[in-house]
């Protein structure tokens, strides 16, 4: 599952998969060329791929993140090591029932003592997690902080990007996404974050797998959430995996795990809060996270007595999964500002 393109880096992740296919096909066509000519063609193809990415998102031609940011790249799928997790802004060392974790976060400059802040979770990053960290778009502390500041400027609300376990410097294994260990880590990290920076309430914003994470946090009984904006989320995980033909023996999530945690099965854990809004936004033609399963999750929330809205929005074809117009950011911004008037 991909992340909603609220960041200038996110469309590159989607485009990267297509570029890899195009370059592979081109390499096959010119396989018979002399080695000298191949050395000439390959850089040209790579330059063309970079240009295509730049034209798609309307930004200058991207450079390797480590060079552009002037800072070290963030590591992926690494164990939690206390010595690598200093007690300073950007790092949270937390203890879980499953063991310790170091969760990274990247924030705008105004989160201290904030009455309200938006906390964003990215979608699944399985498409890039096995690449060299230097090749992953936006994979430095400086670039992630720059992106958080830009999102804050667009939303008008303090902004925090919290890296899911195994991604963007957070410890853990991204292959175990949608298991309880992921959600326990994020839940403990939010506690530590809000205490360190004295944040009163938050708006959770997640797209795709990030929306599933946000929904799971609700079912774990999290409070002090003004809004949860969940776009194109995955629920009914076993049924979804079977529909997509990605369930092992019809018993696993798309990750291959049989230990997945499905928010749809744990709605009873959502804390009572008549002021909190839960907003689900999706596209009826979504080919990645079926919209009827999103509606089913919303229906279960409503039946349990919680306030929930379901909205539809345009999405990028052909998957119709990544929503357009930064609708997640806009919805989270509006919800945060309305909540501050309560």
Give the helices and strands, then pairings:
Layout: H1 10-29, H2 35-57, H3 65-69, E1 91-96, E2 99-107, E3 116-121, H4 141-155, E4 159-162, H5 180-197, E5 201-207, H6 209-219, E6 225-231, H7 237-243, E7 277-282, H8 291-303, E8 308-312, H9 327-339
Parallel strand pairs: 3-4, 3-5, 5-6, 6-7, 7-8
Antiparallel strand pairs: 1-2, 2-4
Structural commentary:
This protein is an alpha/beta fold and 342 residues long. The chain has 2 domains: 1-62, no CATH class; 68-339, 3-Layer(aba) Sandwich (Rossmann fold). It contains 9 helices and 8 strands. It has an 8-stranded mixed β-sheet with strand order 1-2-4-3-5-6-7-8, sandwiched between helices. Helix 1 (10-29) runs antiparallel to helix 2 (35-57). 46% of the residues are buried.
- Under CATH at level 1, the class of the largest domain stands as Alpha Beta
Strand content: 5-15%
The CATH superfamily of the largest domain is Alpha/Beta hydrolase fold, catalytic domain
Shape type: globular
- Round the Cα radius of gyration to an integer and report it: 20 Å
Helix and strand composition category: alpha/beta
Order of helices and strands: HHHEEEHEHEHEHEHEH
Averaged pLDDT:
86
How many domains? The number is 2
Strand order of the largest sheet: 1-2-4-3-5-6-7-8
Find the CATH topology of the largest domain. Rossmann fold
The stretches of 5 or more residues where confidence is low (pLDDT under 50) are 19-70
Question: Strand count, sense and closure of the main sheet?
Answer: 8 strands, mixed
Compute the separation of the termini in Å: 35 Å
